[in-house]
Amino acid sequence: MIKRIAVIPGDGIGVEVTAEAVKVLETLTRSSALAVELVTFDWGAEKYLREGVTLPEGALEMLRREFHALFIGALGDPRVPDMKHAVDILLGARFGLDLYVNERPVKLLDARLCPLKGRKEEDVNFVVLRENTEGAYVGIGGNFKRDTEEEIAVQEDVNTRKGIERILVYAFEYARQHGLKKVCMSDKANALPFGHGLWQRTFAAVRERYPEIESWHLYVDALAMQMVKNPAQFQVIVTCNMFGDILSDLGAQLQGGLGLAASGNINPGNVSMFEPVHGSAPKYAGKNLANPMAAILTVAMMLDYLGFPGEAARVEGAVVEAIHQDRTTSDLGGALGTRQVGDWICSRL
Ligand code: NAD
Ligand code: IPM
Ligand code: MN
Q1: Contacts of 154 (CB under 8 A, 6+ apart)
Q2: Which ligand minimizes its atom distance to the CA of 132?
Q3: What is the pTM of this model?
Q4: How far is C-alpha 14 from the geometric centre of its chain's CA atoms?
Q5: pLDDT at residue 152 is higher than 90
Q6: Torsion over CA: 184, 187, 193, 199 (sign)
Q7: Fewer CB atoms inside 10 A, N or C side of the chain?
Q8: In terms of Cα–Cα distance, which of 229, 1, 261 is closest to 116?
Q9: DSSP-derived secondary structure for 268-285
């Protein structure tokens, strides 16, 4: 069956890395059993500034009805300081399509890229599973007495038992399906006893159902320290929306930087959205400098999700080969541009 993929290049380097991701998909369709149809949408800062439109009306229903997956480059533009379009499009899709899992693998593909001393590839290989539909991201709150000396800002942190339970269950099931033995849940219940106390109590109940998996808890500050001190201890990390955001950038650097970090926003069994962890990196935009590997590894995640594990492995293999042979952009110490790295990877598929 043909898989239909909605492609949203977005802003800044999102456009450039998406072009390389698309090249990879097109190369694969010529040389494998993969059959995909790509439809590009121009949603992003340009459209917003030109037409005042962020996520067009009915877009989410259309995506749900007509597509198997979405691929997003990045959203964010200095001309839109309040990120209105990114909130509507990116968070709109995460919430509107109920993509409750943000799966962010942290995998060291070449030991030379790790900023920690003396680590091997097997020392950095875990996944951050970030709750993706609630927490501090729900946009509930407001400003009272705005722009006065008495101003008050309230930003609510929403945690539901159902929301917590489903991401915890996903984490344990993920471990089971991947033959992994360890799940670490992280929160900040010592300072946030109501919201994160619920994480603790829900975790206590869910972990009972998975006695064969070693599960434990770390406060997020201690987890950040342990990720640097001894990343080899982690296989699956599960946490709330905001902590997952922060920890996944920390994890990205453990594997060589944001230019390599892939992610999937997943609603198991339903239309899901794939995007590199990085943003639109305005200072690199339009210069053929951005590393397209995060986007290309994101294509691999998407293919795996869509039922093409062989093609996904081929893409990852080609990226690893490019790194080993120093066919990389400057962030990884190489001399190639965005397009040249993409071309080289396609030549190995
Ligand atoms: P960023 O991830 O865009 O970039 C931070 C730095 O990381 C860059 O300056 C660059 O040095 C490096 N970097 C990131 N991606 C790279 C790549 N592919 N190749 C080489 N180096 C890379 O984060 P930021 O500067 O904080 O944010 C820029 C804009 O992007 C903001 O508007 C932000 O809100 C948005 N953003 C969007 C997403 C998303 O769409 N998913 C994610 C993060 C940030
Ligand atoms: C990410 C980004 C987004 C987030 C921003 C752009 C809202 O940082 O995907 O990691 O915080 O989720
Ligand atoms: Mn982030």
Answers
A1: 141, 142, 143, 144
A2: 2
A3: 0.97
A4: 14
A5: yes
A6: negative
A7: N
A8: 229
A9: TTS-EEE--SS---GGGT
Closest-CA residue, ligand 1 atom 44, reads 279
Go through the chain and tell me how many residues it has.
349
Ion ligand 3, residues whose Cβ is below 5 A away: 245
Check if 11 is active-site: no
Per-residue pLDDT, averaged over 31-46, amounts to 94
Ligand minimally distant from the alpha carbon of residue 80: 1
Calpha distance 176→197 (Å, rounded): 26
Residue 158 φ then ψ, to 5°: -100, 120
**Among 212, 213, 185, 214, which Cα is nearest to 201's?**
185
Could you tell me which of 234, 79, 230 has the C-alpha nearest to residue 171?
234
Quote the pLDDT of residue 33. 83
Site of tokens 């342990």: 226
pLDDT number for residue 136: 97
- Ligand 2 atom at minimum distance from 87 CA: 7
Residue type, position 147, single letter: D
**Mutational test site, ligand 2, from 89, 90, 95, max ligand atoms within 8 Å of CB:** 90
The answer, yes or no, to whether any atom of ligand 1 lies below 6 A from the CB of 296, is no
Q: Is 147 a catalytic residue?
A: no
- Known catalytic residue at 245: yes
* Alpha helices (H) along 117-207: 161-177, 195-207
How far does the centroid of ligand 3 lie from the alpha carbon of residue 34, in Å? 31
